[in-house]
Amino acid sequence: MPTLPGAPPVPDATGSPVNPRAEVAPSGVEKCAARAHARRITDALEKTPGPTPDQVQEALRGLGYLDERTDGPRRSAGGVGFTLDLRIMGAHLCLDGTVTGTETAVVPYGASPRVSCREVRRSAPDVTSSRA
User: How far, in Å, CA of 39 to CA of 29, rounded?
Assistant: First the structure.
């Protein structure tokens, strides 16, 4: 069923919006998991002054994140950016992170399983963890 212009997409039976690139609201459990992931990542990366993509990748591997679930790390706006795809067993959780050497920010959001995490058109970010 088509939606009216400006109306949010109607979810399908799985809870994913009809438009697969639309952001999916994370569940309460996913929000809690996002905070835990963000804390772990921030703690590991805050010890990396002047981070390089290789250093960030090694830190993520050291935390147990699989290369297949990591997009990047890549140079981004004075730092290193990465995306983690944590969608398993029907979950929608993705994390975008940026590390500058003085600050680490991790932003959680939900994504349909039909697209990659980086393809999602997101609303205003809600930073879960950030340290200076």
Answer: 16
